[in-house]
Write a structure and sequence with these properties.
It holds the Pfam family Peptidase_A25. It is an enzyme of class 3 (hydrolase). By secondary structure, this protein is of the alpha/beta class. Helices cover about 40% and strands about 15% of the residues. The chain has helices spanning about 15-25, 55-60, 80-100, 125-130, 135-140, 160-165, 165-180, 225, 240-260, 265-270, 280-290, 305-325; strands at about 35-40, 45-50, 65-70, 110, 150-155, 180-190, 200-205, 230-240, 300. Strands 1, 2, 3, 4, 5, 6, 7, 8 and 9 form a nine-stranded mixed beta sheet that branches. Helix 4 packs across helix 12. The relative contact order is 0.16.
């Protein structure tokens, strides 16, 4: 009999976290991954390329390019830092477009996935609200469009529970009618780390599967399905209760490691018992085994989510506006958001 262990796996949408988990399990770097990390005054950028099928299988992520921007201090709501993050996003996203061959004349469709009425899931619609759209000008008065802009349209298709239609089906119909050259899909993600909630932005060229981070299997927005390249932009806004408990075990072990001379010491083992001998995956499996039958493995978001989601949506929207339109001043990326 083959056991299905997928329910005991760590739930994360971040390629960086999947890579960290895989390396921890194997105890060595994964062949077929290229990683480049830069850090500047609190803004850490990780560029990860999954080069072959073997590496893809080991980390559970599709072959492609991933850029992760981590800014722990975003929680402090520092306006100056938010502007620097938006400028970093412009640099990284522009380079990302160049890397996958999206030139300045290509038409763009921005898709804001998620539910307006659920704050942690409202990232996509909020970005669409602040995006600088221009397609109607190109349709109605193309001769009056100033240089430095490109044709951009945007849609927030809602969610299956409120429309009765898969987001991918709605987007596919729009693609067939408006014929964009590239799709940029924005969605909320799930993370295994509390520290990365609302402080991390991931860019990827592999498309997106709405709801995948919380276990909902939905028809994806990918090049294979839609016929045009699909870039995914995501921010982790939720994690599972089991993940929080598992992270707490890690913090406790680190605390006792400092206080009592290591996780293998007598005092630490006396306090934590057999937990000290379990791997992260085994601990998570134990926690899920306890919580899931009770219905307590709930999806959790920080209580400050209302402020966080507005801030991060503005950062992404202003960054996209400056990346897609040369006429938008990259040094003042916040000027084009509401």
């Amino acid at each position: 009999m083959t056991l299905d262990l997928s329910q005991y796996m760590v739930r994360t949408d971040l390629a960086l976290e999947a890579k960290e988990l895989a390396e921890r399990m194997h105890g060595a770097p994964i062949p077929g991954l290229n990683e480049d990390i830069t850090e500047d005054d609190g803004i850490k950028v990780t560029r990860l390329d999954v080069l072959n099928e073997s590496a893809s299988m080991q980390i559970g992520r599709v072959q492609g390019h991933y850029v992760t921007i981590e800014v722990p201090a975003l929680r402090n709501q520092d306006t100056g830092l938010q502007e620097r993050v938006a400028a970093t996003f412009v640099t990284e996203f522009t380079g990302f477009l160049d890397k996958i061959g999206i030139t300045e004349d290509k038409k763009v469709l921005i898709v804001g996935l998620g539910n307006w009425n659920v704050t942690p899931d409202a990232l996509g619609p909020l970005v669409v609200e602040n995006a600088l759209v221009t397609r109607h000008f190109y349709q109605l008065a193309p001769d009056q469009v100033a240089p430095g802009y490109r044709e951009v349209s945007a849609i927030a298709p809602g969610v299956l529970g409120t429309t009765g239609i898969e987001s991918s089906e709605i987007v596919q119909s729009i693609v067939e009618r408006t014929k964009p050259d590239v799709i940029i899909a924005i969605d909320a993600l799930a993370s295994k780390s509390l520290d990365r909630l609302n402080t991390t932005i991931q860019i990827a060229d592999i498309g997106i599967h709405p709801g995948s981070g919380i276990g909902n299997k939905r028809r994806g927005l990918t090049k294979e399905i839609l016929g045009v390249p699909c870039i995914a932009i995501g921010v982790p806004t939720v994690c599972y209760a089991s993940t929080i408990v598992n992270n707490t075990f890690d913090l406790l072990l680190k605390h006792f490691d400092q206080e009592h001379g290591g996780a293998g010491s007598g005092q630490t083992k006396q306090i934590m018992g057999l937990i000290t001998e379990l791997s992260e995956q085994e601990r998570l499996g134990l926690v899920k085994e306890v919580l899931q039958p009770l219905g307590h493995d709930v999806i959790v978001t920080p209580k400050e989510i209302d402020e966080f989601i507005e801030d991060i949506a503005n950062i992404i929207a202003s960054g996209l506006n400056a990346s897609l339109h040369k006429a938008v001043n990259a040094d003042n990326v916040g000027a084009y958001t509401h």
